[in-house]
Amino acid sequence: TTMTSPAMTLQSNRSLLEIDRDHLIHPVTSFRGHETHGAILLESGKGMWLKDREGRDLLDAFAGLWCVNVGYGQDSIVEAAADQMRRLPYATGYFHFGSEPAVRLAQRLVELSPEGLDHVYFTLGGSDAVDSAIRYITHYYNAIGKPAKKQCIALERGYHGSSTTGAGLTALANFHRGFDLPLRWQHHIPSPYPYRSELEGDDAAIIARSVQQLRDKVAELGADNVAAFFCEPIQGSGGVIVPPVGWLKAMRAACTELDILLVADEVITAFGRTGPMFACEAEGMTPDLMTLAKGLTAGYVPMGAVLMSDKVYQGIADGAAADIVIGHGATYSGHPVSAAVGLEVLRLYTKGGILANGQRVGTRFAAGLAGIADHPMVGDTRGRGLLGAIELVANKGHKTRFDPALKLADRLFERGYRNGVIFRAFADNIIGLAPALCASDGEMDMIFARIRNTLDDLLEEADIRAAV
Ligand code: PMP
């Protein structure tokens, strides 16, 4: 054993931050900004709680990055991974090889997902799930003799990952700027964003207009040229935008009529995040393809998946002779350790009661959102299940956004952190919330109490007070 004094810990902490600054590139971060800001190093976690290296206890209201749906420190997951690593740490899916966990996990996903999604391809996360969906769709239309159908449509404010193809379907400025995106076959239609729509309050009108915008875009591109419509059932990274109930089903009907595929990107919304196992389930609809990640392994190890309808699978299968390889695949597709973790995580959701707890505590979450709506800085609260947002505005009546010069999002995050709560602070001053499904009522109330304190603290700062 080595003895470490508090001073040594501080010393090693300081040098870790320096090493981080000099060598570690962080995802979705300003390189220059990070050099001055520095890293916030997290040390351990249990349930809803994180501990940083300074020993601060933090209530995680964002489940890591909307992924740790079962909470931190679930020992049965650790054991499932360790068992599998000891038995067989790796099996390729190439050359017809495979492993039991991958086969069983595919079976479970087919059982649990909406009727009609019968085939599963495993990825490493959400970005390559979206990219794989695009590759399979391209292959499908070539295979069935409709090679012109290549144009894809997605929503403004949508997020579909960080691959070149997925970031192009994404419609958030930072993911396009400097990356020469979107690509020429990628198109966007407006987001069904009730709070920022002049149709707010008239759900039927918002849905009808969205359907019309899809029809118009397809007409503009030519129906024979359009492959697919990609959407998140609830837009996550765009600011947790909750379309009216019935929107997804209406878009499904429109896609069927227009003869284009619908890809539901459920990377955030699946696995109980919005209540049911999958958000599509609540609308009784089946997409042609579904992309999954995050909650699939609850963030304990990396894994994603693409679920595919039999129609798409058979089209691809029929398109090439039995001795022709479909050249898409990754070394770690169907990784046995990730699959073993996925199986245990799914068991925790179902038999372990975590999905049911999430549904129960969802009521408390909704009450928390409603309760904070009266705050002078809050313009809108919205959510479904345990996915929610609090949109801050300078003027409630006019829905005026805060002046970007106030750098409110950064201050919001830092204040929250000091008050012991972690949430997402989006650039346009939307607080994103996605607590783990294992939360207690008390923890849920504590999240909202700490957010309220954070808003009150900010309102005491002169420039913010003057802006409201
Ligand atoms: N699609 C959606 C809807 C997402 O929210 C994300 C991740 N936030 C992705 C795709 C990309 O997933 P990953 O970060 O695992 O590559």
Automatic annotation (TrEMBL):
Keyword annotations: Aminotransferase, Pyridoxal phosphate, Transferase
Keyword Cytoplasm attributed: no
Taxonomy, superkingdom: Bacteria
GO molecular function term, any single one: pyridoxal phosphate binding
GTP-binding found in the keyword field: no
GO cellular component terms, A-Z: cytosol
Cofactors, names only: pyridoxal 5'-phosphate
Family designation: Belongs to the class-III pyridoxal-phosphate-dependent aminotransferase family.
PANTHER family assigned: AMINOTRANSFERASE (PTHR43094), AMINOTRANSFERASE CLASS-III (PTHR43094:SF1)
Descriptive protein name: Aspartate aminotransferase family protein
Species of the source: Sphingomonas tagetis
